[in-house]
Amino acid sequence: MAGQTIEFKGKTLELDEDGFLQDPDLWDEEIAEFFAKEESIPELTEEHWKVINYIRDYYLQFGIAPMIRKIGKACDMPVKHMYQIFPTGLDKGACRCAGLPKPTGCV
Amino acid sequence: MTTVIMACPTCGFVIADFTEEQMAAEERVAKRYQYLKKKQTLCPNCLIATKRLKELRGAEADEAKAAAPVFSGEILTPEEVEGFEEAEAAETPLLDELENGPWPSHVTELKKSKYHMMMYEEGMRLRQTQWGFGGYVSLPGVAAGILVRASARPDIARGANFMRMLAPSGGYYTTDMLRTVCDITDEHAYGLLHLHSAGGDIEILGIPTEDLEPTVKALNEHGFDVGSTSDAYRNSVDCLGMSRCDVALTDSMGMRDAWYKRYLDDVQYPRFPHKLKVRFSGCPNDCARAQQKSGIALVGVFRDLPRVDGDRLTEWVGRGGDMNAIVRMCPTRAMIWDGKSLEIDADSCVRCMFCINKCSYAIRPGVDRGVAIVVGAKFRGKYGPLLGKVLTPFVPANPPDYNEVFEIADRVADAFDEHARRKERLGDMIFRVGMDQFTEWVGVEPSPRQMAEPRTNVYYHWKAEELGR
Predict the structure, then answer these.
(1) ipTM of this complex prediction, to 2 decimal places
(2) Beta carbons within 10 angstroms of residue B456's beta carbon
(3) By the CB < 8 Å criterion, does B269 face chain A?
(4) Do β-strands B142-151 and B131-139 pair in parallel, antiparallel, or remain unpaired?
């Protein structure tokens, strides 16, 4: 399955084969909510946004997704809890909602 | 207080961090900051990687990337695969050859299952495996993910998911339990088990993506757990310990159970920079290969001398036992034997257990028993195979919760989590920073007993006052 293109609220979004956003600059909060539904998250709560915003800020600063321990420290959450609020995993679920391209290696 | 972080722009590795006070107070720090800012320097790893890749393999690497097969993680049923009938009808002469001979043939076994024989046959014909890279499929509820083996030949098979099932301690299965696992495998997968994988777990091969959830559910219903994947604690392996062995010094199986009770969250929710393996051996003979294969090895040891039973020794020698050979083979020449009585020199003995293995009728292990913590062994990785280094030569092992042992293991895992680079094994990290720095992070006093070769190091002895005698 190759990448796909979707129309979302007047924007043309290019996704790769795993559904990750190709161009992180097109990301906005509505897209995050749209992705969250596909990642079996019913509603984005404050905790979700804390993680998503941290991952996104880190990515924009360093060009790479942060390591799990850093997310946990910065957002003040145990690792287990983060996996519970993002059931499909931090690498897929959280990074996808944050509009990052598919992370290489570990998160 | 503001902190300025200088990170590698490619990988995010923190090269240096400065506080503003530091910069104001120390000229050296301010200069270093200006230098780093001006150069926009990469970390050493990236510097090497980018230069090499661009200069030596630039075009080649790009081509290889473009040619790599794209894999979505799904497995097609035979009907969906184009040209499947031809492939199925095609003969497998090269594999048939492997069925000859008086030994059991793996090909015969594979043919009975739903395994894609043509993938194997084509690999044999082209002298190049037709399987591609591995990876993970994410499944809600299984944080560590399910493993996938991609295919480089989508015309034959689209790849295969497989999952690892955690084995009970000691690798003991009742036939009943195995039958349950077999039933689940028959229903959902190839009908093929890989027993055991190198990590000591059961691998269930070839599960279609839509069947992953039912498989996990079925396994959980019967009290089994999947895992041993991703950057978490992997499945741990132990020796048979006190359940079947005559020289077991600690209850390695009980310790493994206690360990799982304590760290189940870290097994299920990956949090480390890379995988971390823990193995349990009951004695320095190390049947579980802990000192060679695991990041944290917990090996049963004794501190006092081997116990020699004089009467039994005389009896053994009278029956034709060759004590002289054992004394000659003692690696540190610690034994003095005059034909009647045996003395063991406490300062030379390294507790290698050679004499105990050779003459277990008369020589038995000591009674002051505990656990040695050996860290940093691994096979693959940056710096090649590494043996474990002794971190703490003796920790008392107190069942049922083994707090003293696990507290140190805890600190090792935390130091690894805090300081390792992305995808760096514990052994590689210790190799990079050195044992001095590592012991400081873990909070263990450096000592001459932290050596690379436990069996030959002459510092591995205990003073009388340390033993409380």
Answers:
(1) 0.81
(2) 12
(3) yes
(4) antiparallel
CB pair distance less than 8 Å for A89 and B7: no
The C-alpha atoms of residue B62 and residue B25 are separated, in whole angstroms, by 48
**Does residue A75 carry a catalytic annotation?**
no
CB count in 10 Å sphere of residue A18: 14
Contact across the interface for A89 and B138, Cβ inside 8 Å: yes
Is B274's Cβ below 8 Å from some Cβ in A? yes
Ordered structural domains, chain B, with CATH:
3-65 (no CATH), 72-230 (3.30.70.2500), 237-303+367-442 (3.30.413.10), 307-364 (3.30.70.20)
Query: Given an 8 Å threshold on Cβ–Cβ distance, is B72 in contact with A67?
Result: no
The minimal CB distance from A64 to the residues B11, B141, B271 is found for B11
- Taken in order of first residue, the domains within chain A and their CATH numbers are 4-97 (1.10.10.370)
Neighbour tally for A4: CB within 10 Å: 11
B145 contact A CB<8A:
yes
Instruction: Please give the Cα distance from A28 to A102 (Å, whole number).
Output: 17
pLDDT in tens, B80-96: 544 444 445 567 888 88
Residues of chain B with pLDDT under 70: 1, 10, 39-90, 451-461, 468-469
Strand partners, B204: B163, B193
Write out residues 77-116 of B within 8 Å (CB-CB) of A: none
